[in-house]
Amino acid sequence: GEIDCDEYGRILVRFHWDLANAYSMRCRVSQNWAGAGWGGMVIPRIGMEVLVEFLEGDPDKPVVVGNVFNGKNDAPYPLPAHKTKAVWRSKTHKGEGFNEISFEDENGREKVYMHAQRDHEIHVEHDRSKRVDRNQLESVGSNKTIEVGNNHHEVIGGNMTLMVGPNKLQSFVTQKFKALTSALGDMAGKLGLPDMLNMGEGNLIIGVAKNKAETVMLSSTEVVGAGKAVTVGGGMQTIVGGIANTTIGIGAYEEVGHNKAVIVGKQYEIVVGDSKVLMQENGTISITGNKILIDGKELVRITGKTVKVN
């Protein structure tokens, strides 16, 4: 409905005994609270039925004290079907939408409902606490931005799944997660530790439909308590600008389906106990050990400008 008021929120009313186009003087509207720049303000709209009292019985001092529904203006929800619902619903000015806060008080169906026709803003000057005893569902139709000025801390008692991409990614990532657990089990078996993995609660699943980029400006540390498996469908490249150090406490297993090339610029050294193989950039290859066994099933060929056998 249309809204007609002055700077004090006063409205014009038409009494039942008035002529068709006759209106009263401007009437103040009783509010639930009225302070100096604070309080409540709801302006009755054109077409509403209101209750009017006259201060001290003076017909020149009318005050609107309330609103009532009638046969023309129905309640927001059909009655008596929704008699347990308390509701406050507005109406979009010159539109068909509405804002609403409602309370359902039927035993076993209690609910607080809030509807914003367009935007919903919350501004908290100090702290805000929220507690959900069971489940929470959050759905955002477009974009979401979270900005934290200081620290961000999350505790997840069970598992966490993060999907970036279409909904069909869910089943794909689930399959990959099962394959991961299988691969970790195989790796544990090869290392002789079949019982080191127990895939229960406490899992984090991340699925990305296309690309993932991660940049760390300083240091990055990753600690894995049990096993770790990396599966790459295509190529994989690792670039280390300084020194790379890998320490394996028990065993290591590597399998290459076709070719493998290792290129070292200065020196390459393999040490196993008292045995050592040393390759240098000048072409010198040194093999040192207590016993050196060379077994060629068909042929052993040694070629050199000078061959010395001690």
UniProtKB/TrEMBL annotation:
<dbReference type="InterPro" id="IPR054030">
    <property type="entry name" value="Gp5_Vgr_C"/>
</dbReference>
<dbReference type="InterPro" id="IPR017847">
    <property type="entry name" value="T6SS_RhsGE_Vgr_subset"/>
</dbReference>
<dbReference type="InterPro" id="IPR006531">
    <property type="entry name" value="Gp5/Vgr_OB"/>
</dbReference>
<dbReference type="Pfam" id="PF22178">
    <property type="entry name" value="Gp5_trimer_C"/>
</dbReference>
<dbReference type="Pfam" id="PF04717">
    <property type="entry name" value="Phage_base_V"/>
</dbReference>
<dbReference type="InterPro" id="IPR050708">
    <property type="entry name" value="T6SS_VgrG/RHS"/>
</dbReference>
<dbReference type="InterPro" id="IPR006533">
    <property type="entry name" value="T6SS_Vgr_RhsGE"/>
</dbReference>
<dbReference type="GO" id="GO:0005576">
    <property type="term" value="C:extracellular region"/>
</dbReference>
<feature type="domain" description="Gp5/Type VI secretion system Vgr protein OB-fold">
    <location>
        <begin position="6"/>
        <end position="69"/>
    </location>
</feature>
<dbReference type="InterPro" id="IPR037026">
    <property type="entry name" value="Vgr_OB-fold_dom_sf"/>
</dbReference>
<keyword id="KW-0964">Secreted</keyword>
<comment type="similarity">
    <text>Belongs to the VgrG protein family.</text>
</comment>
<feature type="domain" description="Gp5/Type VI secretion system Vgr C-terminal trimerisation">
    <location>
        <begin position="87"/>
        <end position="170"/>
    </location>
</feature>
<protein>
    <submittedName>
        <fullName>Uncharacterized protein</fullName>
    </submittedName>
</protein>
